[in-house]
Design a protein that fits this description.
Layout lengths: L6 H16 L7 H9 L6 H5 L4 H11 L8 H8 L33 H5 L7 H10 L13 H8 L5 H9 L4 H18 L9
Helix pairs in contact: 1-2, 2-4, 2-8, 4-9, 7-8, 8-10
Length: 201
């Protein structure tokens, strides 16, 4: 899949991983991918027009997801089954009590600590993986099969994702608005630059 990504789309994924670590999230979801896209110099104009910046996205994630309590049940269950903690989520095992003398508590049996999870490869959530499959099926005619930033943005703005719905609401817009506008922007780009999806970069 990633071999079809433009250079900027790949950089957006790398940035999403970095943002997840900074937020101490041992998973990568559409919320982190959105920051990765916004951080690129050629991010879709739709996002800039809506005032969606890196700082605004970070605030939206903190407000919407927090340390994990706001994740969807689908994503949380998928992460938890691999022993990765999702602090505060209703599906997560009870957090152990802190030990005496300020020593950190041991993680629940079968689970890593957040620090241990962040030190390893950070997995994509179910909805994060869904972004990639949806980006490959954006309803637009194009000459090549390259996936660029507008494709990823369209896929992230999924009206069926409650976390992204809440994020965009916090950002003063909606998934439907962003998806509609970025699709129109992609069509305009392809009309001017038909080989956009046949070149890397």
């Amino acid at each position: 899949m990633f071999e079809r990504f433009s250079l900027n789309a790949r950089m957006a994924v790398v940035q999403a991983q970095a943002q997840a670590r900074e937020l101490k999230h041992p998973w990568i979801g559409p919320e982190h991918l959105l920051i990765g896209i916004v951080a690129q110099d050629n991010a879709p104009h739709t996002l800039a027009r809506r005032g969606i910046t890196v700082d605004a996205c970070r605030k939206a994630i903190i407000n919407t997801v927090g340390s994990g309590v706001g994740l969807s049940d689908e994503d949380a269950a998928d992460i938890l089954k691999n022993g990765i903690p999702v602090p505060g989520h209703p599906l997560a095992p009870p957090e152990p009590k802190r030990k005496l003398f300020g020593r950190k508590p041991e993680p629940a049996p079968g689970f890593l600590t957040v620090e241990q999870a962040l030190a390893q490869h950070i997995p994509f959530t179910v909805s994060g993986r869904r972004v990639f499959s949806t980006a490959a099926e954006v309803p637009v005619e194009q000459e090549g099969d390259m996936i660029a930033l507008p494709h990823l943005t369209y896929a992230i703005a999924d009206p069926g994702n409650p976390v992204i719905d809440r994020m965009f609401d916090f950002l003063g817009t909606s998934t439907v608005t962003v998806r509609t506008e970025v699709l129109a922007e992609l069509k305009e780009l392809l009309a001017v630059w038909p080989d956009l999806t046949t070149k890397k970069g």
